[in-house]
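User: Here's a chain of 141 residues. Predict its fold as tokens.
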Amino acid sequence: MVDLCAERSYISEVLVQTLGLKKRKTDVNILGINGISSKSSSSVQLKLKLSVSEEIALEALVVPNIIGSSSISLCNSGEGMQDLKLADPHPHKKCIIGALIGSDVAPKLFLPNTPNKITSEGLLLQPTKLVWLISGTTKTT
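Assistant: Prediction complete.
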């Protein structure tokens, strides 16, 4: 998941364990919506491979979970959605979000001089070095 409003990048404890990543001790307070605070006591170093010759190093704070489960409704989301390479190959199925790329890394993903698209239903489509980002409100199904 990419969240341009998040100041940092995060990874769930479950994903850290699944990937066998080495944690580093840290002590970071995390302030969320409505002043709700949390704490991360560890972080991991990651490399996000963008292509054969390009990668981005990032530090992700380890948290118990990113978000419960999520699914989006892209059915009938309008023209311009056909044949887009999305991060999630099955966006209609509920899934656990294991990592969140925040604004510490996300701007490095955008392609310069590449126009965004807007679907007929008002979704903003932004091309990145990895996949298309989709922003906006969809109808619930």
